[in-house]
Specification:
The complex is a heterodimer of chains A (about 160) and B (about 600).
Chain A: E1 5-8, H1 10-22, H2 30-41, H3 46-56, H4 60-69, E2 81-86, H5 89-93, H6 96-107, E3 120-125, E4 137-139, E5 142-144, H7 152-160
Parallel strand pairs in A: 2-3
Antiparallel strand pairs in A: 2-4, 4-5
Helix pairs in contact in A: 1-3, 3-4
Chain B: E1 3-8, E2 11-16, H1 21-27, E3 38-40, E4 45-47, E5 56-59, E6 66-67, E7 78-80, H2 84-99, H3 115-122, E8 140-141, E9 145-147, H4 157-165, E10 172-174, E11 181-183, H5 200-204, E12 210-212, H6 216-223, E13 229-234, H7 236-239, H8 255-265, E14 269-272, H9 273-296, E15 306-307, H10 312-321, H11 335-351, E16 358-364, H12 368-373, E17 379-380, E18 383-384, E19 388-391, H13 392-402, H14 423-426, H15 433-447, E20 465-472, E21 475-483, H16 485-496, E22 504-508, H17 527-543, H18 553-563, H19 569-575, E23 585-588
Parallel strand pairs in B: 1-7, 13-14, 13-16, 15-22, 16-19, 21-22
Antiparallel strand pairs in B: 1-2, 3-4, 5-6, 5-7, 8-9, 9-12, 10-11, 17-18, 20-21
Classes of the chains: A alpha+beta (about 160), B alpha/beta (about 600).
Chain lengths: ~160, ~600
Amino acid sequence: MSSIQIKIKEKDCQKIKEICESFNNDPGELINVLHKTQEYFGYLPAEIQEVIAENLNVPVAKVYGVVTFYSFFTMTPKGQYPISLCTGTACYVRGAEKVLDELKKELKINVGDATPDGKFSLSCLRCVGACGLAPVVMVGDKTYGRVAPEDVKKILEEFNS
Amino acid sequence: MTLINIKINGREMQVEEGTTILQAAKKIGIEIPTLCYMNLHDLGIEHNPGGCRICVVEVSGRRNLAPACVTKVIEGMDIKTHTMRVLNARKTVLELILSDHPFECLTCAKNGTCDLQRLAQELGVREIHFEGEQSTYKEDFSPSIIRDMDKCIMCRRCETMCNKVQTCGVLSGINRGFEAVVAPAFEQDLIKSPCTFCGQCVAVCPTGALTEVDHTNKIIRALSDPTKTVIVQTAPAVRVALGEEFGYPAGTSVTGKMAAALRRIGFAKVFDTDFAADLTIMEEGTELLGRLTKFLEGDKNVKLPLLTSCCPGWVNFFEYQFPEMKDIPSSAKSPQQMFGAIAKTYMAEKMGIKREDLVVVSVMPCVAKKFEAQREEFAVNGNPDVDYSITTRELALLIKQSLGDIKDLPDEDFDKLMGESTGAAVIFGTTGGVIEAACRTAYEVYTKKKLDKVEFTQLRGFEGVRSAVVDFDGLKLNIGIAHGLGNARKLLECIKRGECEFHAIEIMACPGGCIGGGGQPLHHGNSEILKARAAALYKEDAEKPIRKSHENLEIIQLYKDFLGQPMSEKAHHLLHTEYFDKKKKIYIE
């Protein structure tokens, strides 16, 4: 008959408390609180959502509902080298989807996930403003243009060495 | 109040400003079909997300069809509720919903009571013109409730009950689009959430997505095992609702036929949970008087108010949400568990049966009772005091399987030893009943005077939070009553803030008390049904020769032969329990 336990580091707990307080612990500010928290931690794991729920006095199911509704929020940490693939119109028509398939195959992960070793994570975004280079892939802050599926392996190798 | 002129199907009428098309149509006898909509009149809860689009109607001058449940009438509105365009649209909407619904109707627990099924019949859907992906989701089996989200149509009624009415905050809509589902946080199973198993979500689910765990087969197996003696107890609220499953009007008391049916199904003894309710009053009433006496003597450490503890949904609620107050509720077990504990000791001894060979079945208006029955503290060496707890609906199923109907059965009595009950026990089934029963006994024990009039009508009613003063011959007792966990929360928070001073409080998890329990025949939000059930209980109370728990002859016998005194060491061991802090804990590393 024991209760469920959640473990979190003290400084993380303190930071979340500060963020919630900066919005007066107002449950109506849940989305803004999640925004700020994700900005700081990079993602929103379960224990962080629990602490937010506690501070704002809302059910954690509701917090989880909001986190899963908006695609901007993520529960998986970003990799050391976050990979973003542009799927904007220009990149899309020039074969971004095939590049994405290749990335998924090479990394063995889906969009929104990170590799088990934490090295890479994969996300899609809409237009980086370099349509002339379509399709565009960004790894960290490095940009690759006119990427073909067969280039993917080579790009990843640069970060694997 | 401003009146607005509108036209429905060519008929002119005036309605109040703020009326929806759905309500206006109802006034002239037109029932627009709905699916996600839910109106729990007396709770003040209207659930109208306008999501399913079944209730669409045509409004002149408006390009698209309007959902009647959320569209308010405006001056001059010309509404048509069943044009060909409307009927076709409704059918299309329903076909789209059905295109992502498993066709398991014949084997579904809700077969025959499903709103989706009924609607498909009423709208004349004979073919599904759409084919597409089917959403699949893991099933969740808890001790009380089964979640089969493949059958969910996202009406989100359960979410309203869980969050707005019961304030448990367990269920929430998660993900979006095709992936959307109603689930506890992090898609964990109910058992890992603060779910109280009150079953109000089950009670309002239009489909088979939320159902109770069905124990009828286990009971049939036990009944056919020659080495087992199977006995049954029935809760007060069951007898005034069971009839509805067999076509009787709401508020028909079928106590005698129910006892006859149970005997014919094959139960060795047909007993009454009401007997245990009288026992509960003896223990809880004594506990109340004990605390009160100490309080009046100036003891500052005494815990008041005393909170009732019969309701397992409520017990779960305070263990999760208000664990800091877990010393306040009465330590008395619920009638179901008192019955089990006494049956497997006192009765087993008298009948010469070994504990392991005795199977105790309870029939409850409740799904939380299933969870309660399997709590570790209510077992001896792994053998539970109550083996199986079934709902009123499951009993109806068991009767239909075994006997077909109850209509032609004679009225029979409960068996002796644990079958006698008083009027006080009968009213346990409705909000305010437990505390009224407690007052009848506590008054006479405290004042040593006979009550002229046993009814404490000031404690009756349907308001969510009520308070009343009961005069114990000069000692004025402040009594609080709440039904529905959201109302219970209001009372608890009031106590926490130190703003209200009560001596005793009765809390029932379900709106209306047990008569509105999650295991009862579905009332589809019609509170008139609840009122009829409550009236039937008060009528049965009034007709009982004995109406005070301490005058129950079998209870007097039980104390004489077995327990000694209320709150004796033996009584404490068998009839009292403790509560646990189950609030989620955040640990700092």
